[in-house]
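User: What would this chain look like folded?
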Amino acid sequence: MDKKITTPLNNVSVEKLKVGDTVLISGTIYTARDAAHKRLIELIDKNQKLPIEIENQIIYYVGPTPAKPGIPIGSAGPTTSYRMDAYTPQLLDRGLKGMIGKGLRSQEVIDSIVKNKAVYFAAIGGAAALIAKSIVKSEIVTYEDLGSEAIRKLEIVDFPAIVVIDSKGNNLYDMGPKEYLQFLIKGGSEKIDLDNFSI
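Assistant: Here's the prediction, encoded as structure tokens.
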């Protein structure tokens, strides 16, 4: 069963999310990719105010296509998250609670997720048009010169995602293959040392 969550997040709502949970997110989220992240970190390094309030918020790693007439946004599928890894710990230290993207994260990011009680969600790559249907409003709030990578404020209703790294550091990308391997041996007497198994 999908868990319904609403932004802004907080420690209580984040700690209830467990790796593998499917969620439907509603509320306000922000978009940002690597170019925008770089600018945000430059502001942090200069002790300057950020153009968006990130405390308890979610950033979606997306560069949407132009919207067609009558709809708020074009296709809006997730981009690869590791491109933001160099910037993410500083944003988490500033209160960011969630990220939506696809793919693996660095150990430094995972450690920062645990430290700051945050969560990393995966959106489904290849389902950009479907995801866009859950976005009911989109407005550029800063860095318009970046085009599709401008920071947008999105209003979303039942945005589908999966918890892939929870606030305890449990990582679906590590657990999934091992659990699938255990499933394949069908509970027989032969047991595999999953802690030392690699794929």
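The CA atoms of residues 68 and 74 lie 7 Å apart. If you want, I can go into more detail on any region.
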